[in-house]
Amino acid sequence: MNCEKAREHFADDLAGTLEPAAAADFRSHLLECRACREEADHMRTTWISLENIPEPDPGPEMRTRFYQMLDAYQQGRREAAAPRAWWSWWPQQPALQFALSLGLLCAGLVGGHLATGRENANPEISQLRGEIHNMRQLVTLSLLQQQSASDRLQGVTWSYRAEQSDTEVLSALLHTVNQDQSVNVRLAAVDALRNFGHSPVARKGLVQSLSKQNSPLIQIAIIDLLVELKERPAAPALRTLLASSGLDENVKKRIEQALQQIG
Fold first, then answer.
1. What is the pTM of this model?
2. From 3.30.1330.60, 1.25.10.10, 3.40.309.10, 3.30.420.10, which CATH number describes the 167-263 domain?
3. Which of 42, 8, 45 has the alpha carbon at shortest distance from 26?
4. Which of 19, 60, 157, 261 is 20 to 30 Å apart from 148, CA to CA?
């Protein structure tokens, strides 16, 4: 089992739904891989903490979001990964605002349609995949808004499960890069934006973010990502940053190298 496959089993392990063979492979991988072991331990700690958060009353936006999901179910949205044990992605107790109860409601709606025995079941299955995507999105956005830096880091981890076309998660990651008080969270968010590298919005957001950063670590991380993406339109912003006073020497050197690489 590799690291990518192991990460897919994190939620299943928390829910206790892993098959014995898969569980054995998963535990064996954790013994060998320190990074995955630490991430799994951190996720377990986070979920335990989330269980202690009191469930808030539904906000006025719940009705709007529900009808948006219902409309998506009726019209169809997009194909996602093949369905598998979709309930294992959810915690055993409600915690993240109204996300869990809303997800269960939508899943129940899909299940009701599947139970009608219609001949054409594929649209229902496709919509079920869409609801899983929505659930992952809600968990990601909720965690990114938490006060704890460790919870926000977990939100960045969840963003890797989002669709590359998910503009809400992309916007939340860009906001995190620009506004989060934790350098570690901002660094993780920059790395997560690599998954959205095809998006012009992500590229433009990274370029604009350069002038908003005061941490050399973040500046270098953004510069490295822009070079990796071969973002030539970033050159003017890099030159502007290079000309600014008080710029860290390491950042200056990295900008000079970047300008040579992207032209």
1. 0.53
2. 1.25.10.10
3. 8
4. 60
